[in-house]
Design a protein that fits this description.
The chain is 45% helix and 15% strand. With 455 residues, the protein is α/β, with parallel strands linked by helices. The protein folds into three domains: 5-267, Rossmann fold (3-Layer(aba) Sandwich); 315-393; 400-453, no CATH class. A four-stranded parallel beta sheet has the order 4-3-9-10, sandwiched between helices. A four-stranded antiparallel beta sheet has the order 5-6-7-8. A two-stranded antiparallel ribbon has the order 1-2. Helix 1 links the parallel strand 3 (25-29) and strand 4 (65-69). The chain starts with a strand and ends with a strand. The model has no long low-confidence stretch (mean pLDDT 95). The structure holds adenosine monophosphate and zinc ion (ZN). Adenosine monophosphate is lined by residues 30, 32-33, 41-42, 44-45, 232-233, 235-236, 264, 266-267, 274.
Length: 455
């Protein structure tokens, strides 16, 4: 099999991927903070890394890949939102997590091997923090534990930021107890009413972990001190991943936390940053009310994962059209046993999904039997797509208030009698019902008219 090439954010280059152990390939992706419905920007890493998971499983074996995606269920945003809504934190995190799982079901993602929750892993965080304090990489100040950034000489090398740049960024509103403005929180004291656990490092008051240490501890527990691939959106490269890497390397005395760091580009909507204040905020739930999970998936994968995406109606229409034509071409054809070699080659080149899309449209004409197994590598099931289209058409037919066949017959009669105004009126009436007509001739040269729904 040809090699798999992946782009590594740390080295800024594409290199052949070589897992430490091909029988146990290990992937960690930062999961959601469960305080609100996930938006379509959050859907991007979910879908991109689901495709990577499928590619790795196809290559190394379904049982040879361990995929961990955590749930952040202790965080200041969660505390604030629960207080705002006057509900308890557990109710907020449980209902948000259930919503997230329902969204994932509609997006047809494979479940990760492990989905650890931060609150079930506090002991691992506490013990990492104890180690970091003991070996001089962290210190206690005002009931907080802070990571001493200056104690790690490669800090900044993942996100390629200069020390000056990072210091300037950190200088805004520096807590007085920090030795260095760049130092970040590993543990902080909880106020009354906030979730609290017994603190590490001899701190008398109860507290809770910082976000970065959550991922370091969960990744270590399920994947070990070093693992193969760490992923997330590009906004996480700094400071989140830089900090995860500093903590893990310093606590375990390893050179690298992950061999490869992968980051997806950002998604914007109709040319603007997606934000509640912009009125262009789309949750996965909203989007799935208007399109199938397969359409959303393809609309996402039409762009390479490292490029920014502009999410537009036109993109969604294009994805819908492609899926309909692939599904129609694959229908009634016995599927090939394996995915097309060019599709596999494109995915092996740093997940080049736009090249896969182009190739699938070629296969539609040249080898439709290869369509279904090839699309499946993107997590797109063409039989499911065909069923959804048929169900949609059936629902639209059932909702029709006119007799289409009778109107077509009337129109043909009007045309035969050269009453063209009447024929055009019927055409317009049907168009208003969402029905487009196509005129042609049958095998004897007699005029016939077929119809289809316009969308
Ligand atoms: P968050 O809940 O903000 O930590 O985000 C969860 C995941 O979604 C992270 O991997 C983020 O990088 C990613 N993400 C958030 N917003 C966007 C966006 N607009 N486009 C692409 N990825 C995003
Ligand atoms: Zn993380």
């Amino acid at each position: 099999m040809e090699p798999l090439f992946l782009y590594d954010t740390r080295t800024r280059s594409k290199a052949e991927f070589a897992p430490a152990d091909p029988r146990d390939v290990r992937l960690y992706v930062c999961g959601p903070t469960v305080y609100d419905l996930a938006h379509i920007g959050n859907a991007r890493p979910i879908i991109v890394f689901d495709v990577l998971f499928r590619v790795l499983r196809a290559r190394y074996g379904a049982d040879a890949v361990t995929y961990v995606r955590n749930i952040t269920d202790v965080d200041d945003k969660i505390n604030a939102r629960a207080a705002e809504r006057g509900i308890d934190i557990r109710t907020l995190t449980e209902t948000t997590l259930a919503d997230f799982h329902a969204d994932l079901t509609s997006l047809h993602t494979l479940p990760p091997t492990h989905e650890p929750r931060a609150t079930d892993n506090i002991d691992g965080m506490v013990s990492m923090i104890e180690t970091l304090v003991a070996n001089g990489h962290a210190y206690v100040a005002s009931d907080h534990v802070l990571f001493a950034v200056a104690s790690v000489d490669t800090y900044g090398s993942l996100s390629k930021r200069s020390l000056d740049e990072m210091v300037a960024g950190a200088r805004v509103d520096v807590a007085p107890y920090k030795r260095d403005p760049m130092d970040f929180v590993l543990w902080k004291p909880s106020k009354p009413g906030e979730p609290a656990w017994p603190s590490p490092a001899g701190i008398a008051v109860g507290g809770r972990p910082g976000w970065h240490i959550e991922c370091s501890a969960m990744a270590a527990r399920y994947l070990g001190e070093t693992f193969d691939i760490h992923g997330g959106g590009i906004d996480l490269a700094f400071p989140h991943h830089e900090n995860e890497r500093a903590q893990s390397c310093a606590a375990f005395g390893v050179k690298e936390m992950a061999r490869v760091w992968m980051h997806n580009g950002f998604l914007q909507v109709e040319g603007r940053k997606m934000a509640k204040s912009e009125g262009n905020f789309i949750t996965i739930r909203d989007a799935l009310g208007r399109m199938s999970g397969d359409t959303l998936r393809l609309a996402m994968l039409m762009t390479h994962y490292r490029q920014p995406i502009d999410w537009t109606d036109q993109r969604v229409q294009e994805a819908r059209g492609l899926l309909a034509s692939w599904a129609a071409a694959a229908e009634g054809v016995a599927p090939a046993a394996e995915a097309d070699a060019e599709v596999v080659a494109a995915l092996s080149d740093d997940l080049n999904t736009p090249a896969v899309v182009t190739r699938l449209s070629e296969l539609q004409r040249t080898a439709p039997d290869a369509l279904a197994p090839s699309a499946m590598l993107l997590g797109i099931d063409l039989a499911r797509v065909a069923e959804a289209i048929a169900a949609g058409e059936a629902a639209k037919s059932a909702a029709l208030t006119v007799d289409v066949d009778a109107l077509i017959a009337e129109r043909l009669a009007a045309r035969a009698a050269k009453r063209f105004d009447e024929a055009d009126r019927i055409r317009d009436q049907l168009l208003a019902e969402g029905i487009a007509l196509k005129d042609g001739k049958d095998e004897n040269g007699a005029p016939i008219t077929t119809w289809s729904f316009t969308s």
